[in-house]
Each structure stands twice: as structure tokens, then as C-alpha cells.
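Project outcomes to date are best conveyed with an example. Our students and postdoctoral researchers have been running inverse folding experiments weekly, and each run begins with a structure described purely in C-alpha cells. The record below, which covers 298 residues, was selected by the lab manager from last quarter's runs and is presented without edits.
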């Protein structure tokens, strides 16, 4: 089957915003998942550092490395013929300096072939966004709940719920746009505040837990498929329960292996009666020859 669809680009994303067409955005960390998302027409894929928790079993997102993110991103870009792929810059891959940020954003582009990178933070990260954009690499900003700063934010908590913090968020969003970001992601913020942000910036605004007024929606694929059981954020809707389906499959497999019901004849490779007969004869001959040799040496 040939894929006639054109790869999604930034002008395409801008055009969707202009037309009021909502953008669907999901995370993916591996080839088969990205392939299915791409086929389903998901326009944007984030190779999120949430892979640390959802895929690799870490406690937080802080411990995934640049090398791990590159490996996962390469798998996703191999699959995505249509979707716009964004590599999520892991903790400390951009915070230390503009130079570090450009170097690591460049690795995402050159080694993994992503279309853009994402980094967390508002005004404090404006110079990083500017430096990466100046290097010719598109950047998505990320404000609101920023999991890499969860200790500073008092845990994985919703943000911008009072006038002062909401105003700070709006200023952060404006700074992200001014620094040159092509899009902005808002996480876990009241819908009304996200709407005020959307009115104040001209770039596409994506929401994860920031209400329906934004230009598109992001969710974590393991959350929508029911594959992440540690906790479920308020903003998640589960579209499938794969952990139940997978558990049932694993149990059935184990039972069939124990009972001998698996493998069936259809899972075995055939050998003709003639070849099997010849094999048995030659085994018989070598057994006799070995026993004759043993008698001679005794
Ligand atoms: O890593 C990720 O999946 C993210 C989302 C939670 C926004 O950054």
C-alpha cells in the first residue's frame, strides 16, 4: 500500500490553526506504536521524556538520558511518514546553557531525524528557545505543569489556578512566542486561563489538560491505552484497556505452554517422510559404527 499523504509541516500546522481544524497529538516511543498513530492520521507525535516513566519504569522523567531519547526518537521517525515528530529535550540537556541546548537539539535533528524539539519553561528559557531557533531548529515551548521542575512546583500539580500565577503563565507564554517558538504546549492549567493565553499568542497552542479551546490536544499514549497504571491524571480519557487484553493473552499463553496445547502442528516446520527416514537410517548406522569401534578397542 502506498501512502499518498504529504508529510505534515509547520505551514500545514499553522493552516490547521487558521482554519480552526483541531490538531491531534500523541506521544510515541517505539516503531509499532508510531506506525499505527501515523496510519490513523495523528498529525503530531511527541517522543516525550514521559518514556522514562511509561516505558522504562523510572520514578520521574528526570533520569532518562539524551542517548536514550535519541534511540527512541529514531524508532519513531522511521515509522512516521506523515506525522510531524517532536523530540522532547530531556532534563539537563538544555538547562545548563544556550550552547548545550543548541548542541543537543542538533543531535535530535541530525541523529534522530525529528522535525522539531520541545523544551519546558517560559521566560527563563527564552534565550534557549531563541538560540535553538537561530540554529534553524523549530522549538515547541511547554508551560504550566512542567514535570522536569516538579520539585519546584510542589509535585505534579495543576498550575495557574490563582490570578498571580495565571498572569505569570501568560507572560511566560508571550515570552515563548517572542523567543521564536513555532508552537506552545500548555499542561494542566484551567481551560479559561489557557483560552486567555490562546487569545494573546499567534502561534498554535496545544493542550494537555488545558481544555478544549486550544488548537489541538495531546495525550500520553500509555494513558489512553490503559498501559500506565501508577496514576491517571484528571485530564486523561482512556480509549482502550490494553493492560487487561495483554494480561489475558499472557495468561492464555502460559496455560497453553503448560498443557502442551501450544505449539500446534501448524506452528511447526515440516520435514518429508523420506528425509526423516533417511535421517533415522543414518543415525542408526552411526550408532552401529560407534558400537563396533567400542568392541574393537575393548
Ligand atoms: O514527556 C511528555 O510526554 C510530555 C507531556 C507530558 C507534555 O512532555
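After processing, the design step wrote out the following sequence:
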Amino acid at each position: 500500500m502506498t501512502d499518498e499523504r504529504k508529510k505534515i509541516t509547520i505551514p500545514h500546522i499553522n493552516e490547521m490553526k487558521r482554519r480552526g481544524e483541531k490538531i491531534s497529538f500523541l506521544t510515541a516511543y517505539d516503531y509499532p506504536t508510531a506506525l499505527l498513530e501515523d496510519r490513523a492520521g495523528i498529525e503530531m507525535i511527541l517522543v516525550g521524556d514521559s518514556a522514562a516513566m511509561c516505558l522504562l519504569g523510572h520514578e520521574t522523567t528526570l533520569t532518562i538520558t539524551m542517548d536514550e531519547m535519541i534511540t527512541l526518537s529514531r524508532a519513531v521517525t522511521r515509522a512516521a511518514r506523515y506525522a510531524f515528530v517532536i523530540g522532547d529535550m530531556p532534563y539537563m540537556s538544555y538547562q545548563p546553557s544556550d550552547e548545550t541546548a543548541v548542541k543537543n537539539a542538533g543531535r535530535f535533528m541530525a541523529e534522530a531525524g525529528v522535525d522539531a524539539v520541545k523544551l519546558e519553561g517560559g521566560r527563563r528559557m527564552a534565550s534557549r528557545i531563541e538560540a535553538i531557533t537561530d540554529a534553524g531548529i523549530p522549538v515547541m515551548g511547554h508551560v504550566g505543569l512542567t514535570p522536569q521542575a516538579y520539585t519546584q512546583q510542589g509535585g505534579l500539580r495543576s498550575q495557574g489556578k490563582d490570578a498571580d500565577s495565571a498572569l505569570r503563565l501568560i507572560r511566560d507564554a508571550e515570552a515563548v512566542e517572542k523567543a521564536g517558538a513555532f508552537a506552545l504546549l500548555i499542561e494542566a492549567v484551567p481551560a479559561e486561563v489557557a483560552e486567555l493565553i490562546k487569545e494573546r499568542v499567534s502561534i498554535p497552542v496545544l493542550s494537555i489538560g488545558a481544555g478544549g479551546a486550544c488548537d489541538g490536544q495531546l495525550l500520553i499514549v500509555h494513558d489512553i491505552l490503559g498501559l500506565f497504571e501508577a496514576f491517571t491524571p484528571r485530564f486523561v480519557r482512556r480509549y482502550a484497556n490494553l493492560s487487561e487484553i495483554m494480561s489475558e493473552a499472557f495468561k492464555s499463553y502460559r496455560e497453553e505452554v503448560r498443557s502442551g496445547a501450544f505449539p500446534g502442528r501448524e506452528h511447526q516446520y515440516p520435514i518429508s517422510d523420506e528425509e526423516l527416514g533417511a535421517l533415522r537410517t543414518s543415525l542408526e548406522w552411526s550408532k552401529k559404527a560407534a558400537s563396533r569401534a567400542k568392541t574393537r578397542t575393548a
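The first strand starts at residue 23 and ends at 27. The chain is about 45% helix and 15% strand. The training component of this project remains on track.
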